[in-house]
Every structure is written in C-alpha cells, then in structure tokens.
Design goal:
The protein contains 14 helices and ten strands. By secondary structure, it is mainly α. α4 runs antiparallel to α8 (164-171). The chain binds heme C (HEC) (2 copies). The site of one heme C has 24 residues, from α5 and α6.
Length: 408
C-alpha cells in the first residue's frame, strides 16, 4: 500500500521535472526507497547472482530500455545458464507497469467493468506466478537463466556481497540464519524495488501529458487519429484487450485488461531453438495457459494457445514482440493484426499451395483463436479493417506511450 502512496505523489509531479530527476539524481533512491527496496536495487544489478557470474536481472531487463531486453539485442529468446549458451523459450517482457498486476484467476474480473469473468492476471506470458516475489524466485533458480542451483547458493552469494550489511539492516542481525527465510526476503526485496522505484512506473510519456491535460501533451493529427483507431471497435479495437481506461487500485491507462487471448500467431521457426520440427512438421508447441501444471489436459483444452495481453506502454522501443518473438518491428505487428485474415499468405508459410494458417497451435485447438476485431475471421481478399494510413497513425500513437518524453 505504502508504495502506491509514493507513486501517486510522484505522479502529481510535473512529468518534465520527474524525467529530469530520474536522469540526474540517483542518490534520491537512498532517501525514498525502503531498506528492502534498496536491497532489491542491489540484487537487481548483481551479476554475481548467476552461475555464469555475468547475468543480473538487468541483463535481460535493461533499465535503458524500460526494463525490456536491450535495444541492441534482437534475439527472440535469451541465452543463460553456466556459459550463457542455454536458450530460454519466450521473449523478455518489460517490467514497467507491473505494480497493479492482479494475481491469476480462471475467472478474473475485467477492469473494463463489462466483460464477463475470464482468465486474467498473473506474471509471465502464461500467468503462472502470482507475485513479483515468486517470479524472482523462479528466475534465480531457472537452469537456463540465472541458474543458481539452490536457494542456499543464492543466500551465500548475498551474504558475501558488498551489500550484506544493508541486508542485515533491512532484515535484522539474524537475517542469514535461516536459508528459507533469507531467500524469501531476497525475493521480497526484489519485489519491493520494482514496486517502489518510480522508474518502473514513471507515467512520463507524451500520452500521460495528453491525458492529464498538461502542457506539451498535444497530440499531432496523426497521433490523435491513431488513438481514435485504437479505440474504435470497428477499426483497431485495440482497447478491447489493451484497455486504456482505469485499471485496479487507482491505476490509469495500463493498456492491458490482463486477459488471456489466443491470437493465432505465425510460428517462429528460426528464433526459438526449442521449437523443434521433424520433416518440416512441428513436434512441440508452446501452448500458453493450458501448459501450466495447474491446468491439466484435456480438461483445460479451452485455454490452449492463450497468452497474457501485455501492456503497450513502452512497446515502441522494443525489437521483439509477442510470446514467440516472431515479429521484430511494430509495423510488422500492426500488419499482422490488419491482414491475418485478409492476406494470410503474408503472415504464414505456404506448403504445397496451402497457407499454413495458425501454424503455431495444433489444429484441434484452433477454435480457441479470437474472432473479434481486428482479427474477426473475414474472408481472404476482403478489405482490411484498417487503411495503410490508419496503420501509420496507430504506430505514431503507440510511440506516444514511451516514457521519458521531453516536450520540444
Ligand atoms: C535470461 C534473461 C532473464 C533474466 C536474467 C531475468 N529475466 Fe525476468 N523474464 C525473462 C523472460 C524471458 C520472461 C518471460 C518468461 C515467460 O513468460 O515464461 C521474464 C519475465 C519476468 C517477469 C514477469 C513480467 C510479466 O509481464 O509478467 C518479471 C517480474 C521478471 N521477469 C523479473 C525479473 C527479475 C526480478 C529478475 C532477476 C532476479 C529477472 N527477471 C531476470 C527473462 C529474464
Ligand atoms: C482480442 C484481444 C486483443 C486485441 C483486440 C488486440 N490485442 Fe494486441 N495483444 C493481445 C495479446 C493476447 C497479445 C499477446 C499475444 C501472444 O504473444 O501470444 C498481444 C500483443 C500485442 C503486441 C506485442 C506486445 C509485446 O509486448 O510483445 C502489440 C504491439 C499489440 N498487441 C498491439 C495491438 C494493437 C495495436 C491492437 C489493435 C490494432 C491490438 N493489439 C489488438 C490481445 C489483443
């Protein structure tokens, strides 16, 4: 709760001032972050917390790219483990605006206030953990990521670190006595850092100036038209899932309703080593929500192919998109939304004259795939939901969601 309080106060600061502060005053953190969050900051940047000795949270979640993978890194999946050679299976999401992400539920309430309860919430592309602390525990031990082997290894590395005394200050003189407690506190500290440090939710985009009626927030004609396309149920309809209204706990404009959807992406055959195929046929699939251990098959088949709707804040600086990293530019993403159904041959491979539509999901689950605008299942060759100009405007609008905007 107290972190929310802190955020709200910062939100009230003029965005320009905030942007300036973020760049200049790193010492500010020491005064405003709780002790736990200060520990979390140290942990977040500590490359020693990996078997390779070279990988910190910040390696994949780069503070210079809104805590998504570095701009220069266009891999669909990152390489981790002892020699930084073991591939992950999904692209790196941004860590911005995760502070009001609710826990997962099959029957989650939708922040839009009208949609029926449906799968929503949770962290990771499939929502399999409920808190930022549990998420941190997973990555510290994941053999293809930080690969620390055991909780005890993580704890002894922290005990030997330069910030061990800070950890003791935060968690008491017995902080290292019990491994389980110490490890839990490490994950809670990482969570506290992400919740409290405003760089994870700065609300400093041009869109924030616009929505707050602030000076410098005038959208260009193109951006304004893009916003209209975004909201229009008969054109982009993006707002149906990337909900721009009020979220939970007083949050605003998170550009997600936390819901799960199957949008039928083309398979990434080159960028994900785990996407094996035999004689040209896929042998394994990332099925999202129904691959979770608590969603056993076949009872959960209705959830196959579904992934979390991500926030679109800071999406414009990314070079890898979607849960399978198949698209590398925002305009390719928008083209996919616009032409998935009208020109499927543009998105999917053609084999023996047949377009392999929805080739990243076994055909028995194709009924799960969305048929709402702009992915409404219209016939090949019919007119697209959006015009070429509307796509350009939409892209211009998405660029207004990038934090750190400085009005000219
Ligand atoms: C090897 C690269 C890598 C490292 C290192 C890494 N992450 Fe991640 N992170 C990812 C990937 C990939 C995902 C998405 C995985 C999935 O959905 O299955 C992710 C997901 C997350 C999420 C969930 C975000 C969401 O939108 O649901 C959080 C939070 C997170 N990481 C925090 C951390 C923290 C904290 C650390 C350090 C303890 C860390 N990560 C280290 C690659 C990494
Ligand atoms: C039916 C719900 C729905 C609608 C409508 C929708 N999206 Fe999405 N969007 C999703 C989901 C779900 C994902 C993640 C899918 C996946 O990776 O499998 C996603 C992913 C994205 C991504 C990639 C983000 C990232 O972090 O990789 C972008 C960009 C995006 N959508 C933009 C848009 C735009 C622009 C529109 C409107 C033209 C739109 N979406 C309409 C549900 C939707």
């Amino acid at each position: 709760m107290y972190s929310k309080f802190f955020n709200l106060q910062c939100f009230k600061l003029p965005a320009l001032l905030l942007t300036g502060m973020m760049g200049m005053v790193s010492g500010v953190n020491a005064q405003t972050l709780s002790l736990a969050a200060q520990v979390g900051e140290k942990l977040f940047f500590d490359t020693n917390l990996s078997s390779s000795g070279q990988m910190a949270c910040s390696t994949c979640h780069d503070p210079n790219n809104h805590y998504a993978q570095p701009v220069s890194n266009t891999l669909a999946v990152q390489l981790g483990g002892p020699n930084l050679k073991l591939p992950g299976s999904r692209p790196v999401p941004t860590l911005t605006y995760k502070d009001n992400n609710p826990p997962y539920s099959d029957l989650a309430t939708n922040p839009d206030g009208v949609s029926t309860n449906a799968p929503g919430g949770g962290f990771f592309w499939d929502g399999r953990v409920d808190t930022l602390a549990d998420q941190a525990a997973a990555v510290l031990l994941n053999p293809v990521e930080m690969d620390n082997g055991s909780q005890a290894n993580v704890v002894s590395k922290v005990q030997a670190a330069s910030y061990a005394s800070l950890f003791i200050e935060a968690y008491g003189s017995n902080a290292f006595a019990d491994t389980t407690t110490a490890f839990n506190n490490i994950t809670v500290a990482l969570q506290a850092y992400q919740l409290e440090d405003t760089s994870f939710h700065p609300y400093s985009s041009k869109y924030d100036l616009y929505i707050g009626n602030k000076i410098g927030g005038n959208l260009t004609a193109s951006e304004a038209n893009g916003l209209a396309v975004f909201m229009d149920p008969n054109r982009g309809n993006c707002n149906a899932c990337h909900f721009a209204g009020a979220g939970f706990n007083g949050s605003v404009g998170l550009f997600t309703d936390f819901s799960y959807e199957a949008i039928g992406l083309p398979r990434n055959t080159t960028g994900i080593p785990g996407n094996k195929s035999l004689l040209g046929l896929a042998t394994s699939y990332d099925m999202g929500l129904c691959s979770r251990s608590d969603h056993p098959m076949p009872a959960s088949s209705q959830y196959c192919g579904m992934f979390k709707t991500p926030t679109l804040r800071n999406v414009a600086t990314r070079n890898v998109f979607f849960h399978n990293g198949q698209f590398k530019t925002l305009s390719d993403v928008l083209n996919f939304y616009n032409t998935r159904d009208t020109s499927p041959q543009n998105s999917y491979p053609t084999v023996n004259g047949v377009v392999q539509k929805f080739n990243d999901l076994p055909s028995r689950y194709h009924g799960n795939i969305d048929t709402q605008m702009p992915l409404d299942g219209r016939a090949p060759g019919s007119s697209t939901p959006m015009t070429a100009q509307e796509l350009l405007d939409l892209e211009a609008f998405l660029n207004t969601l990038t934090d750190g905007y400085v009005a000219p």
